[in-house]
Specification:
The complex is a heterodimer of chains A (597) and B (371). Chain A contains 15 helices and 31 strands. Chain A has 597 residues and is α+β, with helices and mostly antiparallel strands. In chain A, strands 1, 2, 3, 4, 6, 9 and 11 form a seven-stranded antiparallel beta sheet that branches. In chain A, a hairpin with a 2-residue loop joins strand 7 and strand 8. In chain A, helix 3 packs parallel to helix 13. Chain A starts with a strand and ends in an 11-residue tail after the last helix. Chain B folds into two domains: 208 residues, no CATH class; 152 residues. Chain B is α+β, with helices and mostly antiparallel strands. Chain B starts with a helix and ends with a helix. In chain B, the strands form two sheets. Chain B has an eight-stranded antiparallel beta sheet with strand order 1-2-4-7-8-9-10-3. In chain B, strands 5-6 form a two-stranded antiparallel sheet. Chain B contains 19 helices and ten strands. In chain B, strand 5 and strand 6 form a beta hairpin. Chain B is 47% helix and 14% strand. In chain B, 34% of the residues are buried. At the A-B interface, helix 8 and strand 29 of A face helix 9, helix 12, helix 15, helix 17 and helix 19 of B.
């Protein structure tokens, strides 16, 4: 249990006013009940939060206990947001109970993240008080924090002022106290990050793998459930430890592969796995990363990770972004790299560059039951779903729009998809043939396809795939078609705005060079996963997860050689390429067990 | 029984005639001496009233399995400008070792895209079980042929008839059980092979050949004609072909397209308008006037040009805050702040919006007014 107490003493001439404050972070509740910790949008709204993701059924109360140092009359606020405001009851309503006092005030009503006043209550000195969050809807009510103060002054809501205020109220020092040193720090435990950690560890590196979820796999995890596609290239042995079967996207079969993946990664003694730790800062000096700071998503505990080499497999390129690595976002103009595909013109590559990118998916599914199943009315979903009917999602449930950034506006994108899902399901439920159908599972994690792309010594383009360019430093091999998605609403306004279509280009076997897997300007930064060095159209093929896994394995092996010779990633290309390619080639063949040598 | 079926077919024809809204003519009646007097029975483009198209030879042809070369002809209007391409196709359709001939007259646009088809009297399309196509089946075929991104493109016929045993063969994240459903929904029931053959004839190599042929004939009049068309392909082609210096003289038509076309065309227009539009109030005004009517992406692209907007435009936008997304509203308010824009009516609109409880982003405007 983490709660923060501070005494703010306000001196005003000769009058002294002492205000007593207590900030309780919701994600730190002892017992979250049916609420889930959502750490996806920390960089935008300031903190992980608790969310009542009940897919239409009220979730169990979240509860915790806090002790107040000083007694007094406390004013209470919660930090929350109405995620679908409009002329209907807010979808995510909830109540707060403090001790025996259940406040009537309905919470979750305000537009945009900020504080809602709950009421006031008297609390005794050293009194231990139980707090409970009571979900009223089952539709994603959210609570970031609960603030108690003997002063009536509402805390600030604007993101910048709030961050300052949080620092003051928690009296948090700038740097984490604990520092851990590794040979390689991998941030992001998707397929690329897992493969990088395994490859590095197998070569004897001491590896930290930092991941902000309880489960490994990113988009392939049982929390998002996208199956892995692409080929194994040189790394079949490693990738088979972490990939998935080809079940339909959204299938619960993902849970079996989840167990396999988690067990396999945990089996490496020299991988220190930091699950539920989210990196929040990184610093470079002289273009060399010194450390990455991460925070436990529930307790708020912090650690600093230092290492000679880092892998950015965050998907969003956060480590590169924080340390000043060059990156790109959006679509290049057709002439930038000559990536035209005339047949699809603007949908493939635009005459003028823009900020359009492929969208994010939120997968979901339903099941047939023996008895009729009710589903609540969802008027707040209607403006998004309109008349669309569905009882299952698929990859083409995807959302992007040019006023939305896949990183900065990810929460709005996720929420738009939730409205699309609940609204389309509600529409389908009007059909008597779906009487017995019930929602089974809806992800609350945004499955992103494209965000920041860090720039390396080589930018992989559509032409590299189309022509099968044989790079001297080819480390990833792929045969999968290149496919770039567009929103179908762009060609017909009658279509829902959350459905995409794929444009497929059949390529020969193609290769990704090692030079696309380390930063151009940050000396000790590797990247693997969708944030590798590529153009928008270049990402169309290798964004699938066996391919990104290959990238991860490739950088894990490169990191081992970097350590061996005490050099930077670029030096491997310049001076040790043969040894590196030999090391990768060896991965194709199973090693002879020591007992048989 | 037979009479009953014929009756149903006639009834369907009558219904479809009403639905299509155009009169149906048999191909032979419509096509005397190579002159097309009426639009094809299934047709996507506009047809000029009382227009007649004359067939003209081209060097183009389609090679059909075991039937050899089949000519592709151009159809020109009375001013001798090309309007369509067409070919009378006779092709075998084979399934399970049994083959029969399919007769169909196909039409392409000047850019090689599908434009429509006619059936030959007495030679109806048939299904696998030899049943003739019903009118609804022809319409479904028309719809399928109109979809150049059809699932049929990427699949061999074998993959369409049963679920692939190794779904990762094509390695697309677009592959799953849903695709089989998509196939069923898009093809005529019992006529998968005919649909497959027709789709690949329409969207095969001939597309590029036709486009190339048109490009060898292209002139200003044809580009203007396309600009004035309702066809999105023609609009895009014309906008790309039109020289930048001629954009200004076409401002009326371009702004009309901006208002009425699909989002993809609108965004192309806004992104590619020459600088003179942004430095000339009367040229840019028609686009701002459509701000509330167009899609969100187009609105965002318009707002990227706020720095060129006149004071009047900025004021007008203050009464369109309801249609703006959060980020659009932020961009607009930031522009007002940076340029210290203020006026009585502007402030009045902002205040009214900030106090409107049903506006979800009222708080953003309220914050702006406070600061």
């Amino acid at each position: 249990m983490r709660y923060l107490l501070s005494i703010l003493v306000l001196m005003c001439c000769t009058i002294t006013v002492a205000a007593q404050d207590l900030l309780v972070e919701a994600e730190s509740f002892d017992n979250p009940g049916g609420w889930v910790v959502d750490p996806q949008f920390v960089e935008q709204m300031g903190s992980p939060y608790l969310m009542a993701h009940g897919i239409g059924k009220k979730v169990k109360n979240a509860s915790t206990e806090v002790t107040f140092e000083k007694g007094g009359q406390y004013h209470i606020w919660v930090r929350t947001m109405n995620w679908a405001p409009g002329e209907w009851d807010a979808p995510g309503r909830f109540n707060l109970k403090v001790g025996d006092l259940a406040f009537d005030k309905t919470l979750g009503l305000r537009s945009g993240w900020g504080w809602e006043y709950v009421g006031k209550t008297k609390i005794g000195k050293k009194e231990s008080v139980a707090l409970e969050l009571i979900d009223l809807t089952g539709f994603n009510g959210r609570c970031d924090a609960i603030y108690f103060s003997t002063s009536q002054k509402e805390p600030p809501s604007s993101p910048k002022k709030l961050a300052e205020w949080r620092k003051t109220i928690t009296a948090e020092p700038n740097a984490p106290k604990e520092e851990n040193t590794y040979d390689l720090v991998v941030v992001g435990g998707g397929l690329a990050g897992c493969a990088a950690a395994i490859a590095g560890a197998e070569q004897g590196l001491k590896v930290a793998l930092i991941h902000d979820r309880p489960l490994l796999g990113g988009n392939a995890s049982s929390e998002i459930r996208v199956h892995t596609l692409g080929i194994y290239g040189h790394f079949e042995r490693i990738l088979k430890k972490i990939d998935t079967e080809h079940y339909p996207n959204g299938s619960a079969e993902a849970e079996l592969d989840q167990v396999k993946r988690d067990n396999n990664v945990k089996s490496y003694d020299n991988i220190d796995l930091f699950l539920n730790w989210r990196a929040y800062d990184a610093k470079a000096e002289d273009n060399t990363i010194k450390y990455v700071d991460a925070r436990q998503t529930a307790t708020g505990e912090r650690k600093r990770f230092t290492a000679p080499y880092f892998v950015d497999s965050t998907g969003d390129g956060w480590i590169g972004y924080w340390t000043g690595a060059e990156f790109s976002y959006g679509r290049e103009s057709v002439d930038t790299y000559g990536e035209a595909w005339e047949e699809h013109g603007e949908l493939w590559s635009p005459k003028e560059a823009d900020n359009a990118v492929m969208g994010s998916s939120v997968l979901w599914g339903s099941k047939k039951t023996e008895t009729p199943q009710q589903f609540p009315k969802v008027p707040w979903a209607k403006p998004v779903a309109k008349e669309h009917e569905a009882i299952n999602g698929e990859w083409y449930w995807e959302f992007t729009r040019n006023d939305l950034n896949q990183i900065d506006d990810a929460e709005e994108i996720r929420d738009h998809m939730l409205r699309a899902i609940f609204g389309s399901f509600s529409n389908a439920k009007q059909n008597p043939e779906n009487d017995n159908v019930a929602l089974e599972w809806v992800s609350y994690l945004v499955g992103k396809r494209e965000s920041r792309r860090l720039v390396g010594d080589h930018i992989f383009t559509f032409n590299d795939a189309k022509e099968g360019t044989r790079f001297p430093d080819a480390v990833v091999i792929e045969t999968r078609e290149v496919d770039v998605h567009y929103q179908t609403v762009l060609t017909d306004e009658k279509n829902p705005d959350f459905i995409s279509k794929a444009l497929f280009y059949k390529t020969p076997e193609y290769y990704i060079p090692y030079r696309s897997l380390y930063s151009k300007n940050i000396n000790n930064l590797f990247m693997a996963g969708r944030n590798f060095s590529c153009s928008h159209a270049g990402l169309g093929g290798p964004r699938v997860m066996r391919t990104t896994g290959q990238m991860g394995a490739a950088v894990g092996f490169a990191a081992a050689l970097c350590k061996k010779y005490d050099v930077n990633p670029r030096d491997i290309y310049k001076g040790y390429l043969d040894e590196y390619l030999d090391l990768i080639e060896e991965q194709k063949y199973p090693k002879i067990p020591e007992s048989k040598q | 029984m037979r009479i009953g079926l014929v009756g149903i077919v006639f009834f369907m024809l009558a219904v479809c005639r009403a639905q299509i809204g155009s009169s149906i003519h048999t191909l032979y009646e419509n096509n005397e001496n190579g002159v097309l007097k009426h639009p094809p029975e299934f047709y996507l483009l506009e047809w000029e009233k009382d227009g007649k198209l004359q067939e003209k030879e081209t060097p183009l042809s389609i090679v059909v399995d075991s039937m050899g070369r089949q000519e592709v002809r151009m159809l020109v209007n009375e001013a001798s400008n090309p309007v369509l391409y067409t070919s009378n196709i006779e092709t075998p359709v084979c399934a399970d070792g049994e083959c029969r001939l399919m007769h169909i007259r196909l039409y392409w646009t000047l850019l090689g895209e599908y434009a429509g088809f006619d059936r030959f009297p007495g030679l109806p399309l048939t299904k696998h079980d030899h049943d003739e196509f019903l009118q609804a089946d022809y319409l479904k075929l028309h719809h399928l042929l109109s979809d150049k991104l059809s699932i049929l493109e990427r699949r061999s016929i074998d993959e369409l008839v049963e679920k692939p045993k190794q779904p990762e063969v094509e390695g697309a994240d677009a592959l799953s059980g849903a695709t089989i459903k998509e196939v069923k929904e898009s093809v005529v029931g019992g006529a998968l092979y005919s649909c497959y053959v027709a789709w690949h004839l329409v969207h095969g190599a001939i597309k590029e050949d036709i486009k190339e042929h048109t490009m060898s004939l292209i002139n200003d009049a044809m580009v203007r004609e396309m600009l004035n068309s309702n066809s999105v392909d023609y609009q895009m082609f014309a906008l790309n072909q039109l020289e930048m210096e001629k954009y200004a003289e076409q401002v009326d038509r371009i702004s009309e397209i901006f208002e009425s076309s699909i989002p993809m065309v609108r965004t192309f227009i806004i992104k590619n308008l020459p600088d003179v539009f942004w430095s000339t109030e009367k040229l840019q005004r028609p686009f701002w006037n459509n701000f509330a009517k167009v899609d969100i992406n187009s609105r965002s692209l318009l707002l990227d040009h706020l720095q060129y907007a006149s004071k009047d435009t900025l004021e007008d936008l203050s009464s369109e805050l309801s249609v703006m997304t959060k980020n659009q509203l932020r961009a607009y308010l930031q522009h007002l702040e940076e340029h210290k824009m203020t006026s009585k009516s502007l402030r009045k609109n902002l205040e009214a919006f900030s106090k409107n409880d049903s506006e979800k982003y009222a708080y953003l405007v309220a914050q702006y007014l406070e600061e």
